[in-house]
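Objective 1b: paired records.
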Amino acid sequence: MSYAIEVESLRFRAGSFELKDVDLHVPTGSIYGFLGPNGSGKTTTMRLVLGLLRPLAGRIAVLGHAMPEDGPRVLARVGYVPEQPHLDSTLTVREIITFQAAFYPTWHRAVAEDLLRRFELDERRLFARLSKGQKAKLMILLALAQRGELLVLDEPTDGLDPVVRRDILAALLEYVSLRKATIFISSHLVHELERFCDWVAVMDDGRVVTEVPMERLKQGTKRLIVSGAPPSERTGETPFVVLSRERANGATERWIVGEWEPEMTAYFEGVGASLVDVIDLDLEDGFVELLRSFRAARG
């Protein structure tokens, strides 16, 4: 498998915040969701990937080139939407588009004009006078018109109304379909990424909690109702990951597990327990349980 982004043993410190041995592998052609609560380190990681910050240690490769050493060569092939708009507030929408186009030999004028129309942006309006949703649409327009092989999007729909989010996500999906590009998109909105991401990584407190295909995370996280459970799951080595367990009624316990497969029910017979029920969890429940388990283990 080839990777658009490879991060290995990445370390970074800013004040009291620290990234600790971060590993990420973003497959080429995938839509890769980067999940985590605010302040977990997603934006810092993205800035390191793009060479906007320098790591203390570790390896970063983007589109097959080392970062930040090959930054100019790489960034010419990357569309980036930062968390906060960074455009000149005194320019009009048309002036910003014209200015941006001058820096990219791959700039596609027809794409820019089509998105300008579809997003219903007034080309004469000053950037400072745009609403939050209009600013987000313009940032996406600029990233897509560059025709990059990789899009790095930092919370691109945070705080936007459902209609604007739908328009932006539809444009992104169309772009990936036509260009076979890779999208690396961060969010703290679990339900938003659930619908269209192929892969997902979860970050908390500067560490990567997990990195798995989206379907594996969705289908493999379950709530088990267990009767006669052993005092500790270490009584027998579990073929799944135990995220949490708590007493329910009498001798019954509720277990939250990851990486579950149907044939793993045999484990409970082997330790003298009985599996009463297997309950599906949605991605948000699984995300919360992953964070809870990670924090409990560290605490």
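Objective 1b, second protein:
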Amino acid sequence: MKLDKLLEVRNLDVRFYTYAGVVQAVSNVSFDVYEGEIIALVGETGCGKTVTTRAITRLIDPPGRVVSGSALFKRNEKDVVDLLKISDDELRNIRGNEIAYVFQDPSSALNPLYTAGHHIVETITSHRNVSKKAASSEAIRLLREVLIPHPEARIKNYPHELSGGMRQRVVIATAIANHPKLLIADEPTTNLDVTVQAQILDLIKELQKKYGMSVILITHNLGVVAEVADRVYIMYAGKVVEYSDVYTIYEKPLHPYTKSLLNAVPNVLKKIERLEYIPGTVPNLINPPSGCRFHPRCPFFMKGLCDVKEPKLVEVEKGHYVACWLHSKG
């Protein structure tokens, strides 16, 4: 594991054992997160983005289970641990402290019975040996840092007394309270209006630079990652189908699914009458398609190949990998 690599996930497999059958939610997923970078996991709803990040922090509840894989996390220069194998106590010390989560819905992330300040204070005192008074002062500072006006008053507000944007800012303040090495932001702009979405993304980027933390941004919209992410992993039906730096993904998308996602995003530089859409739906992962899982929806489908044999991720050019028979040698 390289010194500048914070997280190294390899061959992650997650299954959900339901009465209807075994759901192959995540299959053989590998990715890296380097210190001080933002990566984006992008794909439609149901492609495995959230399950992937919840799996590496062992937040998968039954009937789900991580069946194989590793997630090497660098706590410091001399201590690299496998998050999937360490004890529950050691993992609790890492979660909320070295690895923090910003959940999709701030309303469900905040307990309605407790004030905004209580959430932050509890996070601080759970991992640091400080008084409640000192933690309260730190909570006010954090609310000010996430651009909440009048933090001395807002610290006493309950979640229902705050707007959606403010609730998300409280969640972010809680997440960064212990200066985590890795922040996982799961669709942090869902259900927020467009102007607030931009503010939240700008805030995450500013905090990432200030604290030097790494960020995993989960989103279904390629349009939101252009100005935020350093590298992008495209996921489809539980698998990574393409990844590269953000510039290359936008300028030279190779996988038909990536191209379709980009064509579905409005672009002020292109004059088009109608946005494209991807025909069909995400496949049932209890019985996923054979071969390439995207082949039933792919405009470049090659019968006898795409529906028979699964393409492997290959490096087309330096740092740009794709799993598609259109770009596989031979």
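The CA atoms of residues 300 and 326 lie 8 Å apart. The radius of gyration is 21 Å.
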